[in-house]
From TrEMBL:
Gene3D superfamilies listed in its UniProt record: NAD(P)-binding Rossmann-like Domain (3.40.50.720)
Family annotation (SUPFAM superfamilies): NAD(P)-binding Rossmann-fold domains
Lineage: Bacteria, Bacillati, Actinomycetota, Actinomycetes, Mycobacteriales
Residue ranges of the TM segments: none
Superkingdom of this protein's organism: Bacteria
InterPro entries documented for this protein: Ergot_Alk_Oxidoreductase, NAD(P)-bd_dom_sf, NmrA-like
Domain NmrA-like, chain residue ranges per copy: 4-217
Full protein name: NmrA-like domain-containing protein
Length: 287
């Protein structure tokens, strides 16, 4: 059986969908070639699970070609850092040359050419690149990860969730990274299963005040410029700080959302599990 290539397999602070997916596929008896950027203490558990670990930069076409050699099904994800379009280009060319038949890629909920954040527009460009390669791309347009919201909540004095989202009634679409991984696992374990080329993934929809409460915090609004400066220091990336600042601005402007966001059935359909609510995520996290 050919291995499935999983990029971003080591996981990181932004959701770790690649790490979750690696465990899910190996648990089904499907071999995994795990591409990681750095060989550190995160790769030991991958090897212990049985993954073949390849180390290198996804943007490097030579590395990506080698990683995709003999692969027909693959998973593409890239952290909220500079380099997404470069990585998508290298992956698309290498996957096309390798004869990949299905590639599942993580995107963002509102990706599009007129999207209001540069990252969302880059995701749309990455989608086009993967589509043009003719590799059976399926784009998972995911909402805000529970994990990312919790990471922000864990900063400061531990009592507040401080974000520039206006009143506590501002609505936020959310999803667990594990649910994104489950959907990807379902699509890659059964690569002949029909699916739309774009799947919207939202697992929970909550006002930010209620989301904060579930995480054991009190929501506190803060000026956007103040949060942007904090984010630049916290994430150490101008790309991440700019994207998230713009993202919160969008939600702030949309306010209560007026029914714009809906929990999507694709999570259970392809992932085989009902969406994980933020309440469930928070309860599991506190154990």
């Amino acid at each position: 059986m050919e291995p499935v290539l999983v990029t971003g397999a080591a996981g990181g602070p932004q959701g770790s969908t690649g790490r979750h997916l690696t465990a899910l596929l190996l648990g089904r008896g499907i071999p995994v070639r795990a591409l990681v950027h750095t060989d550190d203490d995160r790769t030991g558990p991958l090897r212990a699970l049985g993954a073949e670990v390849v180390v290198g930069d996804l943007r490097d076409i030579a590395i990506t070609r080698a990683a995709l050699d003999g692969v027909q099904h693959a998973y593409f994800t890239y952290p909220v850092l500079d380099g997404l379009v470069d990585a998508a280009g290298a992956f698309a060319v290498a996957a096309r040359d390798a004869g990949v038949r299905r590639a599942v890629a993580v995107s963002q909920l509102a990706a599009g050419p007129q999207a209001l954040t540069p990252r969302m527009r880059q995701h749309w460009v990455a989608e086009q690149i993967l589509d043009w390669a003719g590799i059976g791309a399926i784009h998972l347009r995911a909402a805000v990860f529970h994990e990312n919201l919790a990471r922000i909540a864990d900063t400061g004095d531990g009592t507040r969730l401080t974000m520039p989202m206006g009143p506590p009634t501002t609505v936020l679409p959310l999803i667990a990274a594990t649910d994104v991984a489950r959907v990807a696992a379902g699509l890659l374990a059964d690569p002949d299963r029909p699916a739309a080329s774009v799947l919207l993934l939202t697992g929970d929809v909550l006002p930010i005040g209620e989301a904060a409460r579930l995480l054991g915090r009190t929501y506190t609004d803060t000026p956007p410029d103040h949060w942007r400066r904090w984010a630049l220091e916290f994430y150490g990336s101008a790309h991440a700080a700019e994207h998230l600042s713009k993202l919160w601005e969008i939600f702030r402007l949309l306010g209560e959302g007026t029914g714009l966001y809906q929990v999507t059935p694709e999570i259970e359909k392809y992932g085989g599990h009902p969406p994980t609510t933020l309440a469930q995520f928070a309860a599991h996290r506190s154990r």
